[in-house]
Specification:
- The chain is mainly alpha-helical and 324 residues long.
- It has 14 helices and two strands; from the N terminus they run H-E-E-H-H-H-H-H-H-H-H-H-H-H-H-H.
- Helices cover 67% and strands 1% of the residues.
- A hairpin with a 2-residue loop joins strand 1 and strand 2.
Length: 324
């Protein structure tokens, strides 16, 4: 929610200017530690507001900078999609995937909001892009695998410190699909996946310790924040709206959903197509399981949707690809 993320950032910013130099360590809202969400979004907003003064800066000034920051992060998400497309299908897939993501109606609408979900979208896409690059390491590219997993780990770390444990569920399934379907050395990539995941679990634990110190009732607050994940969804098909929200690429996304039914002869790179479909399916299922539904929660799905739509658009004939 943009309002809550903005108000928490604004309150912490005012505390800094009122003589609390350590206020950034524990963002607050209504005078209470805001520990339900990790602090990265607040920290980035504070950086965006550097140089502004409460005496002269208006709320509109703060909102404008926060939204420009969100728009910049959205472009990082588009760049990550371009990188994924470049690895999996060359320049054609990279260009179409980035256009399908960045110029879709839903992405344009969401990308300008300074919300947790916009930030999360960028970091999730970066984490997946790093893993894809790492898994496609060829002979003679000794530094590519560790560099790719380092970028992937950074993407997951920033995603965790943006919206908490949910980031694992949005990223790790895509990593697993990449290591299984795309890797030239599954053992090394699964070992790297496990090592990077353990590191990020430790980083998440560090944040929990900080939250516990900031608020004695932190465990109860965090339990309330994440309890809904384990409830049963009453409307599992709500996020089917991603298809019209990807307009004007909706037709290609709809075709991409039927990828398992495509004829083998119509798919030049079947493993790559399966990866894109699995990435989209994993994020869609995760979001659909939650009983709390909102269009803004779709943000982390747009990179996968754009890449899958691009894969379908590059088929010689969509009708010829389907086993009808």
């Amino acid at each position: 929610m943009e309002t809550l993320s903005f108000l928490s950032s604004q309150e912490t910013w005012l505390r800094l200017h009122q003589g609390e130099p350590d206020a950034w360590k524990t963002p607050t809202w209504n005078g209470r530690p805001r520990i339900q969400k990790p602090p990265l979004l607040v920290w980035l907003n504070l950086l965006a507001w550097h140089g502004l003064s409460p005496k002269t800066a208006t709320v509109e000034d703060l909102a404008a900078r926060a939204r420009r920051l969100a728009a910049g992060l959205s472009l990082i998400g588009v760049a990550a999609v371009f990188a994924i497309g470049l690895v999996l299908g060359g320049a054609d897939l990279a260009l179409i995937a980035s256009l399908a993501t960045g110029l879709s109606a839903g992405f344009i609408r969401q990308g300008r909001y300074a919300s947790y979900d916009t930030h999360l979208m960028a970091w999730v896409a970066l984490a997946v892009a790093g893993a894809v690059w790492a898994c496609r390491t060829e002979n003679g590219q000794a530094l590519r695998r560790p560099a790719g997993w380092a970028v992937a780990g950074l993407g997951l770390l920033t995603a965790i410190y943006t919206k908490g444990p949910l980031a694992f569920a949005l990223v790790v399934p895509a990593w697993t699909a990449a290591a299984w379907l795309l890797s030239s050395n599954r053992a090394r990539d699964f070992a790297a996946l496990i090592a990077v995941s353990i590191f990020n679990v430790a980083a998440l634990g560090f944040w929990f310790l900080i939250a516990r110190r900031a608020a004695p009732n932190a465990p109860e607050l965090l339990r309330e924040e994440y309890a809904y994940i384990f409830e049963i969804s009453k409307n599992p098909f709500f996020y089917a709206i991603v298809v019209p929200l990807l307009f004007p690429w909706s037709l290609w996304l709809a075709a991409g959903l039927f990828m398992p039914a495509w004829r083998r002869s119509a798919i030049p790179s079947r493993r790559e197509a399966w990866f894109l479909w699995t990435w989209f399916a994993a994020v869609s299922i995760l979001l659909s399981l939650s009983p709390v539904k909102n269009k803004r929660y779709l943000a982390p799905l747009f990179p996968a949707a754009g890449a899958l739509a691009a894969s379908a658009a590059l088929l010689r004939s969509t009708a010829d690809a389907l086993s009808l």
